[in-house]
Specification:
The protein has 253 residues and is mainly alpha-helical. The protein contains 6 helices and 2 strands; from the N terminus they run H-H-H-H-H-H-E-E. It has a two-stranded antiparallel ribbon with strand order 1-2. A hairpin with a 6-residue loop joins strand 1 and strand 2. Interacts with claudin-11/CLDN11 and integrins. It comes from Cyprinus carpio. Regulates the proliferation and migration of oligodendrocytes, a process essential for normal myelination and repair.
Length: 253
C-alpha cells in the first residue's frame, strides 16, 4: 500500500512538472497581455507600480520553466538533493505568487482612484490629431470600449477642444459603428455612444488585474500539490531501504 502511494506520488510529480512547463508559458502570456493592454490605457493612470504584479508573474513564469526541468530530472533520477532543491524553489515561488495576489488586490483597488484623478486631464489635453498621444489614447478607448466622454458625451462640452472647434460636435470616435454619415454632432445624440468611458476604463483595468490574480492563485495551488508529492518522495526514500525506482522498477539500496 505504501509502495503504491510512493509510486503514485512520483508519477503525479512528473506529470506536475509537465504542467509547470505549460504554466510557464501561460503565466508569461498573461503578464505580456497585461503589459500590452495597460500600454493602451497608460494615459489614464500615473502609478507605474501598478504593473509590478505583471512583472513578477512574468519572472515567475520564466522560473517555472526551470523548476519543471529540475523537478523532472530530480524525480526520474531519484535525486535527494535535486528534490530538496525543487521543494525549496517551489516554496519561494509559492510565496512570490502569494505576494503577487496581495499586490494585485492592492493595485486593483487603486485603479479607480488613479483613473478618476487622471481622466479629466487627458480629455483636457485632447486636440484631435493622430500625432498627439493623449488624442490617440482617447480615440482608441472610445472605439474599443464603445463609450464617449467621461460620464457621457456631454462632458465634451467642457473640454478645450470642443470650445475651440465651435462646431457643437464630439470626436468621430464617439460615433456608433452602425451609423452611416455620423459627424459627431450633439444635435444627433442617437448616433453617439451613450455611456461614458471612466467607468468602463476602470472595469477593464480591474478585469486585467484579476487575470493576474487568478493565474497566480491557480498555479500556487498546483505548486502546493507539487511540494506535497516531492516531500512524500523525499520522506519515503530516507526511511524505506527498499525504495522503488520510477523508471526501472528496481530498488534503491
Amino acid at each position: 500500500m505504501g509502495q503504491c502511494g510512493i509510486t503514485s506520488s512520483k508519477t503525479v510529480l512528473v506529470f506536475l512538472n509537465l504542467i509547470f512547463w505549460a504554466a510557464a508559458g501561460i503565466l508569461c502570456y498573461v503578464g505580456a497581455y497585461v503589459f500590452i493592454t495597460y500600454d493602451d490605457y497608460d494615459h489614464f493612470f500615473e502609478d507605474v507600480y501598478t504593473l509590478i504584479p505583471a512583472v513578477v508573474i512574468i519572472a515567475v513564469g520564466a522560473l517555472l520553466f526551470i523548476i519543471g526541468l529540475i523537478g523532472c530530472c530530480a524525480t526520474i533520477r531519484e535525486s535527494r538533493c535535486g528534490l530538496a532543491t525543487f521543494v525549496i524553489i517551489l516554496m519561494l515561488v509559492f510565496v512570490t505568487e502569494v505576494v503577487v495576489v496581495v499586490l494585485g488586490y492592492i493595485y486593483r483597488a487603486k485603479v479607480e482612484d488613479e483613473v478618476n484623478h487622471s481622466i479629466q486631464k487627458v480629455y483636457d489635453e485632447y486636440n484631435g490629431t493622430n500625432t498627439d498621444a493623449s488624442s490617440r489614447a482617447i480615440d482608441y478607448v472610445q472605439r474599443q470600449l464603445h463609450c464617449c466622454g467621461i460620464a457621457n458625451y456631454s462632458d465634451w462640452k467642457n473640454t478645450r477642444w470642443f470650445k475651440e472647434s465651435r462646431n457643437n460636435s464630439v470626436p468621430l470616435s464617439c460615433c456608433k459603428p452602425n451609423v452611416n454619415n455620423c459627424t459627431g454632432s450633439l444635435s444627433r445624440p442617437g448616433d453617439l455612444y451613450p455611456e461614458g468611458c471612466e467607468a468602463l476604463v476602470v472595469k477593464k483595468l480591474k478585469e486585467i488585474m484579476m487575470y493576474v490574480i487568478w493565474a497566480a492563485l491557480t498555479f500556487a495551488a498546483i505548486q502546493m500539490l507539487g511540494m506535497l508529492c516531492a516531500c512524500v518522495v523525499l520522506c519515503r526514500r530516507s526511511r524505506d531501504p527498499a525504495y522503488e525506482l520510477l523508471i526501472t522498477g528496481g530498488t534503491y539500496a
